[in-house]
Known about the structure:
By secondary structure, the protein is mainly beta. It has helices spanning 82-87, 166-170, 176-182; strands spanning 5-7, 28-31, 36-42, 47-54, 69-71, 89-94, 96-103, 106-114, 120-131, 134-145, 156-158, 160-161, 191-195.
Amino acid sequence: MCGRFTLRSRDRIRLKGFRNSDLPFERRYNIAPTQNVLAVGDFGSGLETAHITWGLIPSWSAEAKAFINARAETLEDKPSFSDSFRLRRCLIPADGFFEWERVGRSKRPFYFQLQNESQFAFAGIWDERRSGEQSIKSCAIITTPANELIEPLHDRMPAILRRESYEVWLDPKTDPGVLKRMLAPFPSSKMKSHPVSSAVNYPENDSAALLMRVDAEVGTTPSLF
């Protein structure tokens, strides 16, 4: 799965017909569900960058139940995701994400990134739910089976798209079979990870200190903040 991630730089994604917006940018070190995330897609006015809520709420949902992740294997079968997979795909820029290793009764966080620490994009889907005069655009990050690097911690990982696949992913004419083949586990040889402080467990903590390597913690209360 993917429950937290980072976005520390404003690298511009280059796509045909894409309008880079002047949205305010803030370095983020602990992006959590229910918060706004930066996304790239056609949200009604052509390809653009927008802030939308992490936690997809289907347009028809009566209970406003939100899904932070969507399994690649069942995208076409689940009513909550099928229309969005077919009609409303997006890119969610990131440069790293967190996963937790269970150690006894506690969980130890690890930070995962590309070997060159560059920015990448998660495969995402989005929807818009209207209620009266209010509307909310929201998204989910697609997950795949874990690669060899992540599998010892968790059996799922976020779907990371290759840069050459961005336009294909966003193209409404792309065949679903092609899209599904793009949702493969990202090669573990192109990634790296290290343990970090359990301070990342708390969404209110959002600083570069969260990414520092922490091989062992003393006590149960982090002292970085």
